[in-house]
Amino acid sequence: xxTPLPPxxxxxxxxxxxxDYERRAAAHMPLASWTYVQEGAGDGLSFAANRTxxxxxxxxxxxxxxxxxxxxxxxxxxxxxxxPILLAPVAYQRIAHEEGELATMRAATAMxxxxxxxxxxxxxxxxxAAARGQASQGLGLAPPPLWFQLxxxxxxxxxxxxxxxxxAAGYGAxxxxxxxxxxxxxxxxxxxxxxxxxxxxxxxxxxxxPLGRILFGTSLTDAAPRWEDIAWLRxxxxxxxxxxxxxxxxxxxxxxxxxxxGLVVSNHGGRVLDGMPAAIEMLPxxxxxxxxxxxxxxxxxxxxxTDVVKALALGASAVLIGRPQVHALAVAGMAGVAHALLMLxxxxxxxxxxxxxxxxxxxxxxxxxxxx
Length: 372
Ligand SMILES: Cc1cc2nc3c(=O)[nH]c(=O)nc-3n(C[C@H](O)[C@H](O)[C@H](O)COP(=O)(O)O)c2cc1C
Known about the structure:
- The protein is of the alpha/beta class.
- Helix content is 38%, strand content 12%.
- The chain contains twelve helices and twelve strands.
- It has one domain: Aldolase class I (TIM Barrel, Alpha-Beta Barrel), CATH 3.20.20.70.
- Helix 4 (100-110) runs parallel beside helix 5 (125-139).
- The chain binds flavin mononucleotide.
- The site of flavin mononucleotide has 22 residues, from helix 12.
């Protein structure tokens, strides 16, 4: 079945940035779902830091550069990406739109953007992979990179079953999220939305932990993944393994010692431990410690093409966007996500051209200045 591009009429005419989608999205979702998407942990300090940290970074253009043959293309873990922008794993996308992750996957395919599907997706990982195949065939485009975000389950055999399913469905990498094993949430999924990949798997350790309960001594802490589990997982799959949720340079080094092929520097959108620095604040120290041995991806607060160049200048290989995909999905489904990705890509090209950078590799640290 072919998947034609949706009519552009589905996109409200006054949307010209990702922030415009965010402003409109609340009206398209039940309040509880909207709150779940937007929330930051605690007092929202880390959530806010994700934006203010980007705003404190200035950009220093170089003029009269040769921009002929300019390109945003990169290669990441052996795969070509049209630009250094990927879709972050975001759970339960059917809370924003009935087609959920399928619409997001079709938009990613239409715009040639890599996607990381969540363990907690509201359709199965196989359905997402199939949507990529159908959309790429229907559009006559090559399928974009598709990776699987893994949450370790309480039983290793359940974790391994998810990995085997991702391998069988053609996913190109495993992104193990390590910063949200112990996360509190009071969000009750709306009727009809479920963790589709986890049917038949005992309640995983990272899901909702009500407030006001003792934590230590429960399976939530006792079964939380440890470094020894990384060594085990690395030995179990031939797919590249990335760890998502690294903020300390020491952990970046430990991850490399454990054979990990890539890192996602992230504070989980400010949703876990309030007080965490923004990922972009820790990026220079991590980039220095890692010294180019593995690619560094980064997320949290990326909303503009200028944010993308700031992250690349400070040592990132690529960025992920989280909430904006939900905002666009809620407002205009697949067309919205495709439009949001197009705007971000076009802002990135403009920023690169104005900085005097014809390639991603030429976005060097001397292009940024820090404001107090
Ligand atoms: C509603 C929502 C659900 C998320 N679900 C997951 C998830 O299932 N797995 C994961 O690793 N990260 C998850 N994240 C975190 C994102 O992958 C990403 O780190 C974060 O959203 C980036 O910040 P941004 O929203 O400011 O772009 C989620 C974030 C949001 C907002």
